[in-house]
Predict the structure.
Amino acid sequence: MPSPSGRCGWELSSSASFSPFYSLADVDSTDAAFRILNHCRRMVYSTSNAVRAAQSNRLDGAPIDRPPLVFVVYEAVEVLDFCGPFEVFSVTRLNEEKRREEPSPFNVFLIAEATSPVVATGGMKVVPDYDFDTCPQLDILIIPGGWGAIRKMNNERLVNWIGRRSRQVDTVTSVCTGALLLGKAGLLDGKRATTHWRFLDRMQELFPKVTVDRQVHFVEEEGLFSSAGISAGIDMSLRVVARYFGEAVARATARHMEYPFPENDKRRITIS
């Protein structure tokens, strides 16, 4: 089966049309087919925008499509775990000169088990756009953390939904203890991952097949990102922006936010 991390399933011709060089009939599961399609869509995003930006010598490429990106929210989710990354993706622009006129190249929305308001930490109420049954096709799935994530590890419907949809998307990310939900869904076995410093030991105990990285601010491995606690999700999200639209766009996004661009993954606090 063709691998999503390998050659993209579409070729760009001189006439800017795309043609598949393998058939979805060649893949052996629906989940694999979704992952291949989403991987190819990301290649189209990055290629088309790089070509346009190079032609104009500015960050003014317009996306041919907006990759759908969803945050999973639940009771007692940490506010900054999703609001920080939400800000990153919602203020991303491909043309800084038209920041007020053009939308983000990402199509960002929230999902929960139900569309009724969700109470986050501190009492903030958020209204999801979709529930699990109505969620559309995704390219990017983000699992924030918080104290609620510990309780939600026993929520079979949530864990199963995360596991199923994660196997269909191009990019999966977690912030803080959201990594525990990925671990519970079996998505971290054999991989490196990190989480909030308070839960590093607990993560290793729960998921012995995971290599828990205690030194870095965020981990990227084969389209799966995990970050340390709370504000680390902002750094990770800027790296996801770069993954889809290039580092220049990610740096411009950080500059707009007056936030230091993460040059590497070493900005973790010192844990004594």
